[in-house]
Write a structure and sequence with these properties.
The structure holds two protein chains of two kinds. Chain A is of the alpha/beta class. Chain A is 40% helix and 16% strand. Chain A contains ten helices and eleven strands. Chain A has a six-stranded parallel β-sheet with strand order 1-11-8-7-5-6, sandwiched between helices. The two termini of chain A are 31 Å apart. Chain B is an alpha/beta fold. Chain B has a five-stranded parallel β-sheet with strand order 2-1-3-4-7. In chain B, strands 5-6 form a two-stranded antiparallel ribbon. The longest helix of chain B is centred in the C-terminal third of the chain and has 30 residues. The chains are: A alpha/beta, B alpha/beta.
Chain lengths: 300, 172
């Protein structure tokens, strides 16, 4: 069997189209423009790339994009003051503080100072608990993107056996919650798991989110399973020329694709979905803030 | 049960946990077992018992599988488990043949059958296969009540510390 490739780039484009459609309607019917504020402290090169691309896509779907680029030395009090202003700004529906923050800033304190209703990253402790108790919340973007791809591919995933490898706060844990809420039987595997191969072999759905290049080999994959690869790892690629690098996921693509029924590639799989889901969350937050019906199919 | 408390559990920072879930986990902690790496099946994914148990155990390093009414084969998962937590509300749901010999059975169910109180596990068939099993009544129930007391004390301490800090920051 050769797996069907789940094209995250194409799927993300359809999500952005849906978002753009809702933005259009919000403007036309209600005179509301959803607004997303992104806060970047310091000049981390990777963060700068993310923030630029978030801002660009926000504008492309017709939303208002506000970027606050703060000096690396910004004090906690100044950052909290900015977040407080954004919390109280009726034109801003989503607030994202780009992580990681410089060492002198308390990430937990900063994230938990964002109004949960505007916390489009879904990391506020109240959103984590709301998701954990199956209530309406803001859902972290990367696992939301994975869930959308799974629903799109399978229709319903109810009753399927799912294994999430990795128990991080930003992917593994919320992913497990989302799969449970969709009635999968969920196993969360991690660095302390014994017989990881056996655990993975039982699964109809494998979500790999550990950050270890190609750690899942094909012979761990049950014939026909769906593999969602969240890992993005950069490796040296001398075969492409001196000093060249390549991106690989947490699963070994060729051998896994030979056994899986469907698989997401890296790059071009989960990656593009993350920003698309950030935009989706912003529209959802905007609708909730204005007491309007939420867009269908854009949230958990 | 406040979202923020549940959020703290998910983030591995246990302050106040739902009593029954904490009680079930505390019982297993008393056994001569290493929870790190333990394969656990949690049967039932309620917000007040199943899910918090899963996240508490995961925080302690267990590999947790959460089963529920849509699970195709509960037995497949329970047979692979070193510890089985059952919290569904269905008498006799877990039987001895669904268990790995020597495993732990934590029975959180409380059901009335023919005027008797029984759990979700079929005690008679499970007790010969399992290494440890909690009876119903007299198992998780009393520990739940004790956990409520302990949570109340802990909450009092947290509030005292909170206000002490608050006073320390003011000038009056």
């Amino acid at each position: 069997m050769t797996a069907q490739i789940i094209d995250g780039k194409a799927f993300a484009a359809t999500v952005r189209e849906k978002v753009a459609g809702h933005v259009q309607r919000l403007k036309a019917d209600h005179g509301i423009t959803p607004g997303l504020a992104v806060v970047l402290v310091g000049e981390d090169p990777a963060s700068q790339v993310y923030v630029r691309s978030k801002g660009k896509q926000t504008v492309e779907v017709g939303m208002k994009s506000v970027e606050h680029k703060l000096d690396v030395e910004t004090s906690e009090a100044d950052l909290l003051k900015l977040i407080d202003d954004l919390n109280n700004d009726p034109e801003i529906h989503g607030i994202l503080v780009q992580l990681p923050l410089p060492g002198h800033l308390d990430e937990d304190l900063v994230i938990n100072s964002i109004s949960p209703a505007k916390d489009v990253d879904g990391f506020h402790i109240s959103n984590v608990g709301l998701l954990g108790t199956g209530q309406k919340s803001m859902v972290p973007c990367t696992p939301l993107g994975c869930l959308m791809m799974l629903r799109d591919h399978h229709g319903s995933i109810s009753g399927m056996d799912a294994v999430v490898i990795g128990r991080s706060n930003i992917v593994g844990k919320p992913m497990a919650q989302l799969l449970l809420n969709d009635s999968c039987t969920v196993t969360i595997a991690h660095s302390r798991t014994k017989d990881l191969a056996d655990v993975v072999r039982r699964a109809d759905i494998v979500v790999a989110a550990v950050g270890r290049p190609e750690m899942v080999p094909g012979d761990w994959i049950k014939e026909g399973a769906t593999v969602i690869d969240v890992g993005i790892n950069r490796l040296d690629a001398p075969e492409k020329g001196e000093g060249k690098t390549k991106l690989v996921g947490d699963v070994h693509f060729e051998s896994c694709a030979a056994r899986a029924g469907a698989i997401t590639p890296v790059p071009g799989g989960v990656g593009p979905m993350t920003i698309a889901c950030l935009l989706a969350n912003t529209v959802t937050a905007c609708c909730r803030a204005n007491g309007l019906e939420e867009p269908e199919g854009l949230t958990a | 049960m406040h979202p923020a408390s549940i959020g703290n559990i998910v983030y591995n920072d246990l302050a106040l946990g739902p009593c029954t879930a904490v009680a079930a986990v505390e019982i297993v902690k008393t056994l001569p077992l290493d929870i790190e790496g333990l394969n656990v099946a949690v049967i039932g994914h309620s917000e007040i018992v199943g899910k918090p148990i899963a996240f508490l155990l995961m925080g302690l390093g267990a590999t947790v599988t959460v089963c529920h009414h849509m699970t195709r084969s509960v037995a497949m998962h329970s047979r692979a488990a070193d510890a089985v937590f059952v919290a569904v509300g269905k008498p006799g749901l877990v039987t001895g043949e669904m268990l790995k010999p020597g495993c732990v059975v934590i029975d959180i169910g409380i059901n009335r059958v023919d005027g008797k109180t029984v759990g979700d596990a079929d005690y008679e068939s499970c007790k010969d296969v399992a290494g440890w099993i909690t009876p119903v009544p007299g198992g998780v129930g009393p520990v739940t009540v004790a956990t409520l007391m302990s949570n109340a004390v802990h909450a009092t301490e947290m509030q005292m510390n909170h206000y002490r800090d608050a006073y320390a920051r003011t000038d009056f």
